[in-house]
């Protein structure tokens, strides 16, 4: 974390708009082990070119500044240097200190990260409430109607106090019953129309809020599922879920009372004008009260925002822990570690409640402070106002009218005190949600014109890859060519890079170096999302979605006919067990397919993959959960499954790939053997060893 702070400071010296929170969000969970390569990648996100190298002590003077020096495992910003001293920025104390070269020599590792402005802006997103504006602007016509009705309601609120003043000053003093009847009827009409227009305004506003909520929720979810898989790999699902919940906080604020309050406050200036016409002295006293409100908010607001931010972080951590506990409940029970998890839960809950309590205390102080100012101001206005009446400067009716009108000023301001707290919550929430909203989506277009456009030839050219935030290479210079229509088997030990190879082919990740081609087109320069439509993947533990078996099979091809569903099910071996179920294809699979056995889920997943008639089929340990009879049934249908398409089958059990055209053996990120089953056995290498172990 200290190294990251130093990098951000260096970026600011180079006039980059940099902040630590942005880079922390990009790193996700990898922030806990920030190595040299990860720090260089962070520099790239900030619009900087970086170079890691070893230098001698005497070379520090000539190094371009700023640079990063590694001292005892932490990088410090080198601000300046001469023949005797260096100026270093200390990330913990946030100050620049002078250190002698002699002191540096004892603790410096010799590593330096040189930084250079690339001329491009940093990739930090501009996020905030502006993201919600297009959805509001879209419904401006309805908003205008609400504003018009609000104007009518406010006009009634202005007229009513003056009618009361007229009754008190004219009717009570002059004993004029005729005036009383006229003014009384006017009051009745005002009392009748105000709630009617208020009702219409609230109904229209609720309708507008619902449409607004629906639209921003749809936009958010559409963006979320369009993010690259690397986004989800580096973040716990519970954290993502927590941020989705925070969208509700923002939506409730924007579509709740915020817009109504803006309208109310807009009319405050109008009410102040009428108050000034009644009595400038009391109006000045009321304005002084508003100044006190404003000063109080300035004092409390910053502290409240900080406490609310801490509360949100603890809540997100707790949600992540809860999500992980529920998803891993079987492991928790079979390992008999319920007590350990319960203790961890109580510890997390205590931290969350502590943060919540601190935020609540500041919130209560805010509420009571506002109430105190309100009570004192009311007492002062009444005290001063009665003196003005007794001295003949204003009438009793004018004092009553002033009090009624002043409430139209103070009530919106008092509501603002409450909504200010909601705004603090929403401000934190919108920043956390905005970090997701401003993540770049995957490349998307209409893709290839038809499935015939994809032939299925694949080539890897000197591909190297490591996962985001990791320095260890998973793939090391892979060179591989797969002809269209070939049946390829890939095997090797766990962690050898087999599955990673297919993830690059799908465009889920980009190579660190090298190129991946499909039909002689670099997948990084084409529409990877569109290409994926012509690929199908069956994973080792494929996910099914709540609904029927039929729904899951047709999810990738909603227009599929019953005949196509039947053919895909028979080809995958799913049809035999489906017809034995009481509800057949209408059987509910449950959450994540939990009502089916592992083998049944795999066969349904295979049927789902085959129904799209993919040009490239990837089987990633697809038969590992099947019993031997079911596996043998699928193996017997492999000639039919592989016909007319490129098939890549990843397997540990060699009997599922021994009939492949070519078998690739991987170890520690490299291809070590290639050939047919018979040729590999003759080579007496790694493949032969695996074969002997499985057939011992």
Describe the structure.
By secondary structure, this protein is an alpha+beta fold. It is 57% helix and 14% strand. The strands form 3 sheets. The protein has a 6-stranded antiparallel sheet with strand order 1-6-2-3-4-5. Residues 121-125 and 445-452 have low confidence and may be disordered.
Quaternary state of this entry equals single chain
CATH architecture assignment name of the largest domain: Up-down Bundle
Termini, distance in Å? 52 Å
The residue-averaged pLDDT reads 82
Strand content: 5-15%
Global morphology? globular
Query: Structurally, how many domains make up the residues?
Result: 3
CATH-defined topology of the largest domain: ABC transporter transmembrane region fold
Low-pLDDT stretches are: 121-125, 445-452
Number of helices: 25
Integer-rounded radius of gyration = 35 Å
Spatial strand sequence of the major β-sheet: 1-6-2-3-4-5
Residues in helix, %: 55-70%
**CATH H-level superfamily of the largest domain:** ABC transporter type 1, transmembrane domain
* Secondary-structure-derived class: alpha+beta
Largest sheet: 6 strands, antiparallel
| CATH C-level label of the largest domain | Mainly Alpha
Number of strands: 16
Question: Strands, helices and their partners?
Answer:
Layout: H1 2-13, H2 20-27, H3 36-45, E1 48-54, E2 67-71, E3 74-81, E4 85-90, E5 95-100, H4 101-107, E6 108-117, H5 133-137, H6 140-174, H7 177-224, H8 229-233, H9 237-255, H10 258-266, H11 268-278, H12 280-327, H13 329-334, H14 338-390, H15 396-437, E7 458-465, E8 475-482, E9 487-492, H16 498-505, E10 513-518, E11 521-522, H17 528-532, E12 535-538, H18 549-553, H19 562-572, H20 575-578, H21 598-610, E13 616-620, H22 628-636, H23 638-642, E14 646-650, E15 662-667, E16 670-675, H24 677-683, H25 686-694
Parallel strand pairs: 9-14, 9-15, 12-13, 13-14
Antiparallel strand pairs: 1-6, 2-3, 2-6, 3-4, 4-5, 7-8, 7-10, 10-11, 15-16
